[in-house]
Design brief:
Layout (H helix, E strand, L loop, with lengths): L19 H11 L2 H8 L6 H10 L19 E3 L2 E3 L18 H12 L3 E4 L6 H8 L4 E4 L6 H13 L4 E2 L1
Parallel strand pairs: 3-4, 4-5
Antiparallel strand pairs: 1-2
Helix pairs in contact: 4-5
Bound molecules: flavin mononucleotide.
Amino acid sequence: MMSEFKTSQAEGLIPNFVNTYELEERAQKVIPADAFGYIASGAGDEFTLRENDRSFNHKLIIPHVLADVENPSTETVVDGDTITAPIILAPVAAHKLANEAGEIASAQGVHNFKTIYTTRSYASADLPEITTALAGSPEWFQFYFSKDNEINKRIIDRVKALGIKKSF
Ligand SMILES: Cc1cc2nc3c(=O)[nH]c(=O)nc-3n(C[C@H](O)[C@H](O)[C@H](O)COP(=O)(O)O)c2cc1C
């Protein structure tokens, strides 16, 4: 069942990319076309995708002149956790579409960067494996409500048992 998700086996750091658009081009070379299409595209005519890009680019960083820049830091505190920068991993389905290491590699990356990971109900790795790979880094959980309350209860019990402190 899980093997459906297995795609790229590319490993290692990606050298010399200038921006995320260039990173996307590199990813396209190693991820099968259908999986890449799912990850990189938006719904319908992709109006919202274009609007997201456009509005993100209008969030400006305002430089503070004549301020103390001896020890600059992007560190911040979110919900009691100190993270490296105000960047967290949003809920993203089926990481194994991109690479067979899937959520485990993503969780290790989040741990190394020191930020927050959001696990999604229908992850392509087993939940305890993700929590283990996070090695104590903060984990949030995105709950997808099922019509079947037994399934809902089982998922919530597993999330509680894993010690995940925030579900939404
Ligand atoms: C492959 C893929 C799967 C995603 N799966 C989910 C999901 O399961 N739940 C969800 O709320 N958002 C999902 N998203 C949306 C992301 O969480 C995120 O909001 C989106 O990529 C826009 O990024 P931004 O919020 O940083 O602008 C997914 C996005 C991608 C690219």
